[in-house]
Amino acid sequence: MSMAIPVRKFDAVIVGAGGAGLRAALQLSEAGLKTAVLSKVFPTRSHTVAAQGGVSASLGNSEPDHWHWHMYDTVKGSDWLGDQDAIEFMCREAPNVVVELEHFGMPFDRNADGTIYQRPFGGHMSNFGEKPVRRACAAADRTGHAMLHALYQRNVRANTQFFVEWMALDLVRDAEGNVQGVVAMEMETSEIYVFQAKATLFATGGAGRIYASSTNAFINTGDGLGMAARAGIPLEDMEFWQFHPTGVAGAGVLITEGVRGEGGILRNAQGERFMERYAPNAKDLASRDVVSRAMVTEINEGRGCGPNKDHVLLDITHLDPEVIMSKLPGIREISIKFAGVDPIKAPIPVVPTCHYQMGGIPTNYKGEVVVDGNTVKGFYAAGEVACASVHGANRLGTNSLLDLLVFGKSSGNSMIDFIKTAPKDLPELHKADVERSVARVERLNNQKNGSNVHEARDAMQRTMQAHCGVFRFKDMLAKGVEKILEVEKMVQTTEIADKSKTFNTARIEALELENLIEVAKATMISANARTESRGAHVRDDAADTPENPNGRDDQNWLKHTLWHRDGNRLDYKAVNMKPLTVETIALKTRSY
Amino acid sequence: MSMQTVKFRIYRYDPDKDAKPYMQDISVEVDPSTERKLLDALVKLKVVDESLSFRRSCREGVCGSDAMNINGKNGLACITDIDTLKQPIEVRPLPGLPVIRDLIVDMTQFFKQYHSIKPYVINDTPAPDRERLQSQEDRKELDGLYECILCACCSTSCPSFWWNPDKFVGPAGLLAAYRFIADTRDTATNERLDNLEDPYRLFRCHTIMNCVDVCPKELNPTKAIGKIKELMLKRVA
Ligand SMILES: Cc1cc2nc3c(=O)[nH]c(=O)nc-3n(C[C@H](O)[C@H](O)[C@H](O)COP(=O)(O)OP(=O)(O)OC[C@H]3O[C@@H](n4cnc5c(N)ncnc54)[C@H](O)[C@@H]3O)c2cc1C
Ligand code: SF4
Ligand code: SF4
Ligand code: FES
């Protein structure tokens, strides 16, 4: 392969046009910097569009609230694995970025006094954990759609330059490890280009497609994580995956927690409101990991519903149909289309479903990527692909959309500062990484007698689902590691029959699988090593003892995991327990 | 688990190898207990024939990726039930837009029209410290407008858009135009009306209603167009 790869030059390259990428792009475009935003799909098709319930901010529009309470809830929700500097930063910034979003044109629902409507959500409490508080700012149950469109629209106004249906393939780093941009493929033509820039941001979203059943879109294939891992960047806390309590049984499509915020109740086969037993205070609005585990326990103990006793029911039949129609219209639509029930009349069958990755590319609260205590020059990450870490071992609902706004903006600002001080001319392009990326595509194009993409993906998804789910077992994890390394071998030899250069989605899926497998390995290997239970990661061999309540072992495991692709090596770093201005939120046993 | 056969007649065209488009007869087995949507069947088909090309992402009707022409009517594959469709299911790309490959069309013209209506809130008064207030009634005016997912089902079913895709804004763009006119926070109504006061941009709509008929989000572009026309008349009076 010759090196006739064309190079396009920018001040900044942003990979991803979901909430995080668009929020960052706005900062850069409005600062007048030459910015390219790449996306596999038209921006408003990014999966942020599917977010339903709300975006958190302590606006206090219907009752007293404070960012410090929000911070407390987030630290507690994270099971103390979140970094308290980043959490303070996010919760303090929340009211600003949400008000700003309103100014951008976001069609929030309104209270009678004209302020932004807020609803209760799981784990969000007033006065340091006392009782549920209305903190989730919402546009019906289409908050993500409204937000993504508003951000896209604001970018149209700012003349942001988009490269739509371009897939980034690999990161380009120079000999010192500084980031120079990405290699990317135009999907329509299969042409490969280098996008060189002073600053590069990954905002590629989640990777829920490593599991067989997920609330995530087809395109959520962890490309940013795969690219980072191949370029030698470790991935942080990948064992922590949130299983959302209420995916539609069988379909995986999400039913927002906002349904429970509006008064929805979970019931088992006996019609019992079982959450009263597991979380006497917060009940159905306990943190997601707690609710998901309660549901699986009910099902495992034979109190599941339906002919196979394999799900529970989410009941809103007692709510005023008017409330359902005005506050939860999208949910009603989903329930009718995917569960075949009108929730005004009958409860919705639900089951915990893979939803959100708490881990990701290690960053600080400025969006700078940090490895071994040093920032990687020119490299930034924000949104679900990043690990700041504000969500720790378990994310609170509505904190992700907030994360996109806060860290999208802060990373944009950091990039502006960096670009301003960088030399005017771009340095010479470091070709080794470009060649490596091109070779990867060539391998795929020329593979003979290889494995089947669909079969390899299927094997990966089934392995993750069976070996690394809501409850985790020592032996299953160990076997899971072996199996996933077997699957990796299949992925290394995938073959496609379709050689067309025009919009070749078979090739794209094969390339996506090469990213997914990195995420799957990171997850399984990190989970196998963490021999405690914390947040969303719960193991049978980490028992509830007086020293380690709920199986959480702060003595040995109050630390972030870092998985390195090279040799599947793991190392660890301390959790930042020191907030920016307030006092540390001290370790406590978590109960709701 | 008994499998069920689904028969298709699908539009195929790969410019790399096909001199011209053709219809392919093909069938696939689905498990009706879990694979109920047309998109499920297409994804299955792609396992059998990986060269079949179509866009898809959210698989729940919110991203607008998988609009196509299904048995003669535009819709989203991911929310269309297989058992409501006559077989063989005839699947074609959205009409009126250039085909890139199979079911993938070039949407450039569609988005150009969307961008032409300045799809963002314009308000040059200094922003307050807190949110701009909006009454619940005023906010209600945006319902039925802001939910558009830009799937293009409507515009590509509109004869006026087929004939003048470069000049007629089309139902999706006009719905968006009215979304901003109707927003009490937007101060550019006059400018927006000026932008549409043109024999083509707005007035090519002849109220044929195809758009309303196909919108998967049950939105009503015709009504929005009517409201814009009303405002224009009022302005003259
Ligand atoms: C169904 C559902 C409901 C949710 N509801 C809520 C909620 O109510 N509140 C909340 O706070 N959170 C919610 N979440 C979580 C939240 O929506 C996501 O975490 C968040 O939207 C992710 O945003 P993002 O910008 O990081 O990524 P995304 O929105 O997923 O965008 C990723 C972008 O990266 C691009 N991309 C990816 N790979 C490449 C590549 N290789 N090359 C080029 N471009 C690429 C994609 O095209 C896309 O533009 C929900 C999640 C789901 C799945
Ligand atoms: S009503 Fe107007 S916009 Fe809608 S299809 Fe007919 S001509 Fe087109
Ligand atoms: S108005 Fe309806 S059919 Fe038209 S683009 Fe929007 S959602 Fe699609
Ligand atoms: S795949 Fe998103 S609308 Fe159908």
From TrEMBL, chain B:
Pathway: Carbohydrate metabolism; tricarboxylic acid cycle; fumarate from succinate (bacterial route): step 1/1. It catalyses: a quinone + succinate = fumarate + a quinol. GO terms for molecular function: 2 iron, 2 sulfur cluster binding; 3 iron, 4 sulfur cluster binding; 4 iron, 4 sulfur cluster binding; electron transfer activity; metal ion binding; succinate dehydrogenase (quinone) activity. Binds 1 [3Fe-4S] cluster. PROSITE patterns: 2FE2S_FER_2, 4FE4S_FER_1, 4FE4S_FER_2. This is Succinate dehydrogenase iron-sulfur subunit. InterPro entries: 2Fe-2S_ferredoxin-like_sf, 2Fe-2S_ferredoxin-type, 4Fe4S_Fe-S-bd, 4Fe4S_Fe_S_CS, Beta-grasp_dom_sf, Helical_ferredxn, SDH/FRD_Iron-Sulfur, Succ_DH/fum_Rdtase_Fe-S. Residues 4-97 form the 2Fe-2S ferredoxin-type domain. Belongs to the succinate dehydrogenase/fumarate reductase iron-sulfur protein family. Its cofactor is [3Fe-4S] cluster; [4Fe-4S] cluster; [2Fe-2S] cluster. It is an enzyme of class 1 (oxidoreductase). It comes from the Bacteria. GO terms for biological process: respiratory electron transport chain; tricarboxylic acid cycle. Pfam families: Fer2_3, Fer4_17. Signal peptide: none annotated.
